[in-house]
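Data deposition worksheet. Section B asks for the primary sequence of the deposited chain exactly as it was used as input, without tags or linkers unless they were present during the calculation. Section C holds the resulting structure in token form. Section D is free text for depositor observations; keep each observation to a single sentence. Incomplete worksheets are returned to the depositor.
Section A, Depositor: J.P.
Section B:
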Amino acid sequence: MRKLLDNSTRRRLELLEYLNNASKWVSSNELAINLDASLRTINSDIQYLRENWHEYVTLETSKKNGIRLTTPPNSHIQLIYQEIIRNSDNFLLLEKMFFCPTKNLDDWENDLYSSYSSLYRTSQLIDEVMQKHGLELKKAPFHVSNKNEVSARYFFINYFNEIYFVRDWPFDIDRELVNSLSIDIAEEFFGVTYQEIDDLMLVYISYIIAVSLTRQSQGFWVDYKDFQPSLEKYLPVVVGKKGQLQTLAERLNLTYNEALIKDIALSIYLFRKDIISDKQWEHISTGIDEFIDQLEEVLHVHPSDNDRYLIRRTFKAIYLHHQTYPHREDVLFNRYTYSAKLIMDNYPGYSSYLKFGLKQLEEKTDFPWYTQYYDHMIYWLMIKWHNLAILIDQKKRKANVLVVNDHGKDHTLFLANLLQHNFANKAVITPYTGIMLSKESLKILNWDDYDVIVSNFYIPDIPEEKLVLVNSYPSNQEWAKIRYAINTAHQLALELLHSIFSLNDDPSESSGAISSTKESANG
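Section C:
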């Protein structure tokens, strides 16, 4: 939906994301090349970010190093995306159109203090976005329509879920009552208490209910031909244990009857499970189980029965949601992509396996586990597999770090002790305590024995990627450099992961590699 942003805002957002994803300083030339912009434009955008988004991010500039982005402790980059949407006339029109679908385009001129020509251009952009989501934008009156009403609803469900989430509530509907009904539906469907269900899912179901009731009150209903006898069992579920649905309907002046209840049941993606054939559901379940088994065997970490249940439940929920709405969910900010990037940086071996394992699963089940949902998978597996991050860390080889200092043995030991205190779980720290009268004194050392060399002076013989220069007492920025170098070297001890998966993009070949590995291990 970035199509709804003006060119300058879209470019600045790309600049922000590039800097945020970078793990080190970035030069203006690199930004200009990768963002296809002139140096003048890049410098202008940097100045804009400093002046307008300084509450959320800090931009450091250095003639020598380039540009680096950091976020204050009390901020998060996602706040910028919310700020952009709040200040966008295009998104404002989209939202107003949802809540008032009876107006023509020219009726919005006075309400939005905008000319008809400007509104018309915005409507063209909205129409392009709608078409990509399989929807149609009607002009008289100005509203979103589709033969599949559920698709229209899920477009707005995803919109409101990202923009407002738990922070605000744009509907004139009792939120607590909606949340109470959401909890009842989830508890009945999964057969567990709401404490065992993700808040993300509960909030999402609340938006399903709110958007569905709003669309009903506007005269947009789901086609009842889609209702199948297998869904009958869910009708008492959507009513709520305390009759919350009836109360909500009456407050919206809706006629509470079986048609309304069936409409809500058809809108909840989880219930699609009973529309899918038993054969297909078994095929998906088997594929998921085989994927978890393979991940367990390759990483040599073992999920508990409850972990396995939660992973399967999450995979299946994603599958059911895709059957209901197969389009991208995010508006501007994809929380899964953001989290996945951090996980990939810290657990490259794990990420490499998932890439190939999900490609295999996608091929077996004809479902875009990797193509469309890789970011979701890498995030949810880390969350649902209890202590997976810790278990993987325990499998990693510690980085070998050499400390060299020209201030004497005592200072070298002092610096080594600081590093030991901060990185004992990730690195083996070795202080150089030999005589240090000149650089030639270091010729007895074999730099290949070390992953990282921390020094307070430049040593020309050391590969650039290994050397970290610091002051006698490291500054905050220098600690960050040390941390990055050690994290980079602190990889999985399972070198096999890289040889099997990182050099091979063919899922079938990676499958063969796994089989060969098992045979050699057993042989």
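Section D:
The longest strand covers residues 399-404.
The chain has a mean pLDDT of 88.
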